[in-house]
Design brief:
The protein has 2 helices and 18 strands. Strand 7 and strand 8 form a beta hairpin. The longest helix is centred in the N-terminal third of the chain and has 19 residues.
Length: 283
């Protein structure tokens, strides 16, 4: 019995089966991402280009983010909702169908934001077993544009990057003759999201003052929720920055200042609705 031939035939049959079933989306079929994003678990960093890479059909990929009125944006306001458009552009050949996959990641830790919603009729949302969320095609799409809503993360999250892979296919139920592309797009957190009018300033107290190793903040319930804390020296340079969460006017965690050189500092606390500040002396 020719075991080599049997194994080869079985492998080819399995490969063909997987290729056909991937038409339902890679996260759906294989529980993985093929966008090229950090954290995708695809073998050897595989993307859709590994299989769909012919010269007969070639495509490019655009990722665009707009507000809900379709106005393009390059920064995000925390907790606001936006539209993400992925467009697969044919540049060589004429694809019969299109597919895509999209993930959004926080740049600082490569974690999926997991905040997609309301996909267009040719797309769906899939959560993989490693805690990531993808948007991808339902079935090979007649149209080359895919849209999904995305809700921005909390204050102080920082830059978020969208990674996508897309393909144009001849719809012969094989990867031969198809083309693919990958792209990424980064949104910075809007600096103005922390700024509030002077009329919305509230009282912030610091103790002990002077301080040696740490300080405790005290403020009213107007500062409840997620906040950004900044410590500035007398030149206006940000000496340290961190985020936290206040409940019922209480700041459960002391702020470590032991690493700061001796001197006078301004401490600011901002939550997008209110701002508070106080000065303290570091021994």
């Amino acid at each position: 019995m020719n075991w080599k031939m049997i194994y080869t035939s079985a492998f080819l049959l399995l490969s063909g089966f997987l290729l056909i079933n991937n038409s339902n989306g890679r996260a759906t079929v294989a529980n993985e991402g093929n966008t090229g994003a950090p954290g995708d678990v695809a073998i050897d960093g595989r993307t859709c280009q590994n299989c769909h890479n012919s010269a007969s059909i070639q495509v490019t990929l655009d990722i665009d983010v707009t507000d809900l009125d379709e106005n393009p944006v390059s920064t995000y306001i925390p907790n606001n909702t936006y539209l993400v458009h992925v467009t697969v552009n044919p540049v060589v050949g004429t694809p019969s169908r299109y597919g895509f996959q999209l993930v959004s990641e926080i740049d600082s830790n490569n974690e999926s934001t997991k905040s997609f919603s309301n996909p267009s009729s040719n797309a769906k949302l899939v959560n993989t077993s490693n805690g990531r969320q993808y948007a991808e095609h339902k079935v090979p799409s007649d149209t080359n544009v895919f849209i999904v809503q995305w809700t921005a993360p909390e204050l102080g999250t920082g830059d978020v990057t969208f990674y996508s892979g897309g393909n144009g296919v001849n719809f012969n139920e094989e990867s031969s003759g198809d083309g693919a592309a990958v792209a990424s797009f980064t949104l910075a957190e809007e600096a103005g999201a922390w700024v509030v009018e002077p009329a919305n300033q509230v009282t912030l107290a610091v103790a002990p003052n002077p301080a040696l190793e740490s300080i405790q903040l005290m403020g009213g319930s107007a500062l409840d929720g997620a906040y950004l804390l900044r410590v500035l020296d007398l030149t206006g340079r940000i000496a340290m920055q961190q985020t936290g969460f206040s409940v019922s006017g209480a700041f459960p965690q002391p702020v470590s200042v032991g690493q700061l050189p001796s001197g006078v500092y301004l401490i600011q606390l901002l939550n997008g609705r209110q701002t508070a500040s106080a000065t303290f002396y570091k021994l």
